[in-house]
């Protein structure tokens, strides 16, 4: 995939790599690292020195069986890296500069890349010098075995990691605090757990547990305590047990509780995880993976016990403070991260930085996703950098999981000014990490390009996609169509619709809805004054029938009885947008207040009945505002307009008492109040418009630019120059400035000169008040200084005496 030089005219410098790059940065070795590294810089802090197959030094759950630890003292183990290791990065958009977003002077060259450096990313901070005396630095080995399947038999891949004294000591403390099991016992527990999981969630036949996992008399006594008072009597009895007894009871009780009483299993896990002798983290994580399945089907949605909810209990039992160093259950770690709050997430990030826990690429991606959800772009990129460093042993940068997470991150991208012009903030960093954009990523880049306000940039990106054989899909055309509709480019819309129908993408519900919206925008919203209103309505109705079921429109009574729909109509339930557009078109194409009142009465009745298609329309103010606009056009519609706003307030207040699942009705928005105020203003009812302002103040509604213009219009029509001047000053104080509509309102004044005199008088009064306050402050300050001087003088006189 080669880069086309014609893209240089796009006024953009982001750069897309044109072929799969070689690995960018070689992994640095542990002896080159500083003693203390940021969270995203330690991916290569451990060295694997053996790939041999070992019969078993570590079980699947991380049980320490043949683990040994010792300091490194042999300098032969230290390998010097080659300083001349460089990367041959193929030229693409990341190397060939595109011109800035702003109109350039045509002097941009292909050799001046404006991509920001990745100095703030982890890899760029790792120097080749590292520690001053790496050989004398005392490191320790943690040895363990990773289970693998070879020739149909589970064996273990023997691995050694080198860690610091602090990490080694923590690893030893975890081993000493853990309940000890025989390897065969753990394997038996694991197999029983797998059978239980398959039986509950996959519908497999549940076989009896082995005799060793069947409750005995001692287990029964503990179980009765769990049922009676888990946080009290059971906790006391559990703490009184010896460590081997706890291990024996835990493996049997955990399985029984998961199978028969998940609610009690939560309390049991809480008590045992807070004990001095901890069950293996991987086994606790397995239990929570089982319980989390039940949580997602609503089992623990409202569970609460001893101040704990399900989520808070999960975070307590899977706390990263007890995560093992060498063999961490990655699924358990990800389960914690998925439920963690922002504070808990950053705490886990700091802990794995300090202790150097073994983290897989999938878990780093989980960190990345959560940081993206919290809008932390910088730390998300650091987590992705750690995935890149593990590329040779785990996920590759072009894998589906990495690309999906990059797409989510790109949704946060924005354009910033750089020394070389305007540029995206996130995209260049992803490219330098070796991420090769696929069509999904390019679709988001395309959408971001249009959001910059420069449509030509979006067109250039679209042309680039086609040249790189990235065929447009429904998302691509949806982006192009949305931009064309927003800009009012009717010719472009018609061209895109032709291409969409040629590719048979018009059946996509999102594309169909956008085409429907485009037809409404150009024919109903901005209707030609000479166009027949009935023809406009029926043209949109014909398009609607091809996509959706006509029944909800009949129930709303906006379909004439004599209308016969064309054959071959669709039976799909209409979307909220489609229903809103049809109601808006009907109200805009007919001007009889009686029809508007009839349809609104029917609309409110269907809402009260909970109609499945109509009720969701009440979740926003859009449909209500369309009725208000229709009522505004007739003096007889003022009373229904007031009742409509009262209906919105009454419905939204009732929603506070509704159960979960009910559609929340929208409160009157600032647009709703503004339309109501304009209805009285346009119908020469200034006092009623003032009452609306009072209601807005009572409900704490903030004015927008349109609201201020309506207020100024109301006073200008009443020739109240003083209030016009006051409104202009208040509008400017709120951060708005006069626009063309404001100037049009001022033209209604019979004596415009009086307005500017009033404004000047207000400015002079404001300046005088400011001077008075300043003068008063100066006088007070002078009196204060004078008083201090007199006190000092008195002290001097006393000292001389």
UniProtKB/TrEMBL annotation:
Single Gene Ontology MF annotation: mRNA binding
Pfam families: PPR_2
Region of interest (Disordered), residue spans: 72-132
InterPro entries xref list: PPR_rpt, TPR-like_helical_dom_sf
Chain intervals with Polar residues compositional bias: 102-115
PANTHER family: PENTATRICOPEPTIDE REPEAT PROTEIN (AFU_ORTHOLOGUE AFUA_1G09370), RESPIRATORY COMPLEX I CHAPERONE (CIA84), PUTATIVE (AFU_ORTHOLOGUE AFUA_2G06020)-RELATED
Entry protein name: Pentatricopeptide repeat protein
Species the sequence originates in: Aspergillus coremiiformis
